[in-house]
Design brief:
- This protein is α/β, with parallel strands linked by helices.
- It is built from 14 helices and 11 strands.
- Strand 6 (167-175) and strand 7 form a beta hairpin.
- The N and C termini lie far apart (57 Å).
- The relative contact order is 0.09.
- Its EC number is 3.5.4.25.
Length: 351
């Protein structure tokens, strides 16, 4: 990690910090291509000048137009410019979550706009300037690190994951509250889809990796990945919540009780656990990092729908994922339906 970050050009390593970086924002229903467009337009009260700046092609043109109409700048501009800059820079990061996470990832190092042209917003090129933009960015960074969804997870890294169905991009995250490691498998260009197909899949070592037929997990995992590839774009979140959140060894204990006749809910309760211990709140952080606020959710579990809605993720559609019913798991699936409210066609369970 750098001990000091200098930025200026939007094409530089930390160019996303620049107001000239293309990050659209919507304010009072109006779309602005960059925060620079908005900031320069606020110098004026003339609606025609404002519209010209708003709809011009680039932030460089927006800057030039504001100089062209300098004689029309509002009288109170020097008094209000700092507040306007604070507002629009914060909106830039709030409305572009991937940039917000990048800002947080800079840690606590000092951020400076290294501009020889500006000793108010920048450092004047010699480090003697006020660096007001850098100070705003650091204040926003501090605020974001204390608020959801940014304080829920930490992005670690990403890499390609070839599979039998296609090549996914695998993102690694750490959940802050528990320290658990979670994955997001991203296929295709999810930014081109208003509500991508998404699956929240809790880890099941026995079903996913050991081919167990006493649950439907492995079958659902395979089908979900196939469905996402067939769709052309989508995400599978692989969540480290083994055994509905009780862990692998307790899951084995629960299996023992099930071998003796208990259903999955009774087994968990006899061990002192709730029927389902999973928590999906942190998924909001992962989805926000990926720029997703609306999903088509592949699930039979209404609790997942409810959990995402409570996390302010809009469920545009629930997509059924009925896969893997067999003689070993019919009782398991019936218990899911009867005691946990899972939504199955009865003919699926009885087939």
């Amino acid at each position: 990690m750098n001990s000091h970050i200098h930025f200026y050009e939007p094409s530089d390593a930390y160019g996303f910090l620049s107001n000239f970086f293309y990050a659209p924002i919507r304010i009072h229903g109006e779309l602005w291509k960059t925060s620079e467009h908005y900031y320069q337009a606020q110098k004026f009260t003339d609606s025609e000048i404002i519209k010209k700046i708003q709809h011009c092609d680039s932030p460089d043109v927006a800057f030039s137009l504001s100089r062209q109409y300098s004689q029309n700048v509002r009288e109170d501009w020097q008094k209000v410019r700092l507040d306007i800059m604070r507002f629009v820079v914060e909106e830039k990061f709030k409305q572009n979550p991937s940039l917000a996470f990048q800002l947080i990832e800079t840690g606590d190092v000092e951020i400076t706009e290294h501009s020889h042209k500006d000793n108010f917003w920048g450092d004047g090129g010699n480090g003697q300037g006020e660096n007001q933009l850098g100070k705003i960015l650091m204040a926003i960074r501090e605020k974001l690190t204390r608020s959801e969804p940014y304080n829920l997870i930490q992005f670690v890294d990403k890499a390609k994951l070839p599979t039998r169905w296609g090549t996914f991009e695998m993102y690694g995250f750490i959940e802050h509250e528990t320290g658990k490691e979670h994955l997001a498998l991203v296929y295709g260009d999810i930014s081109s889809v208003g509500a991508p197909l998404v699956r929240l899949h809790s880890e099941c070592l026995t079903g996913d990796a050991l081919f167990s037929t006493r649950c439907d997990c492995g079958f659902q995992l395979s089908r979900a990945l196939q469905n996402i590839v067939h769709e052309g774009a989508g995400v599978l979140l692989y969540l480290r919540q083994e055994g509905r959140g009780i862990g692998l060894l307790n899951k084995i204990r629960a299996y023992h009780l099930q071998d003796e006749g208990a259903d999955t809910v009774e087994a968990n309760e006899r061990l002192g656990f709730a029927a389902d211990m999973r928590d999906y709140r942190f998924c909001r952080g992962i989805l926000a990092y990926l720029g997703i606020d609306k999903v088509r959710l592949m699930t039979n579990n209404p609790q997942k729908v409810k959990a995402l809605e409570q996390a302010h993720i809009q469920i545009q559609q629930r997509v059924a994922l009925q896969e893997g019913c067999n003689t070993d798991n019919q009782f398991y699936l019936q218990t899911k339906a009867d005691k946990l409210g899972h939504l199955f066609d009865q003919q699926f369970i009885k087939q």
